[in-house]
């Protein structure tokens, strides 16, 4: 094989290597941060327990700008639904959320991922936030009890 033929093959291999590395180095986009009505200092947050168990921490509710956007389960989010977001509970899980300040409860369906604010264990729809009487404050200390595992 001539030097020119070898150089052409080396150039083609180098080009393919560069293209392969470029494709591998592209990271997927991170999900948007979960909506919140207000933020409380991390010192007021509590730790969550592992998936499947009772979790205690702060709840927040989705901002109106997320109404109609696609959730992790592929469906459109509705502020009038019982949809909720959890980082650890499996999608499809029904869970009871209890506002620890007033004892009010609501049953939600985990259909999205989040929240993305430290100390928060669940994001709920606005209609669920109204049932829990947490709309004015924006967040509330809650206990999340899974009712099934799908």
List key phrases describing it.
150 residues, alpha/beta, Barwin-like endoglucanases, 6 strands, elongated, Endolytic peptidoglycan transglycosylase RlpA, lyase, RplA, membrane
Give a structural overview.
There is one protein chain. By secondary structure, the protein is an alpha/beta fold. It has one domain: RlpA-like domain (Barwin-like endoglucanases). Helix content is 19%, strand content 25%. The protein contains 2 helices and 6 strands, in the order H-E-E-E-E-E-H-E. The chain has helices at residues 3-25, 126-131; strands at 55-61, 83-85, 94-99, 105-112, 120-124, 139-146. It has a 6-stranded mixed barrel with strand order 1-5-2-4-3-6. It is elongated. Keywords: Cell membrane, Cell wall biogenesis/degradation, Lipoprotein, Lyase, Membrane, Palmitate, Signal. Its EC number is 4.2.2.-. It is found in: Cell membrane. InterPro entries: RlpA (IPR034718), RlpA-like_DPBB (IPR009009), RlpA-like_sf (IPR036908), RplA (IPR012997).
């Amino acid at each position: 094989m001539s030097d020119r033929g070898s150089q052409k093959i080396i150039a083609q291999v180098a080009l393919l290597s560069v293209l392969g590395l470029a494709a591998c180095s592209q990271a997927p986009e991170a999900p948007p941060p979960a909506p919140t009505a207000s933020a409380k200092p991390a010192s007021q947050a509590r730790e969550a327990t592992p998936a499947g168990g009772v979790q205690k921490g702060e709840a927040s509710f989705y901002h109106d700008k997320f109404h109609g956007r696609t959730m992790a389960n592929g469906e459109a989010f509705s502020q009038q639904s019982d949809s909720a977001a959890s980082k650890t509970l499996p999608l499809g899980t029904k869970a009871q959320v209890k506002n620890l300040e007033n004892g009010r409860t609501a049953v939600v369906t985990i259909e999205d991922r989040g929240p993305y604010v430290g100390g928060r264990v669940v994001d709920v729809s606005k209609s669920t936030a109204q049932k829990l009487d947490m709309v004015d404050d924006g967040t509330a200390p809650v206990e999340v009890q899974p009712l099934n595992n799908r």
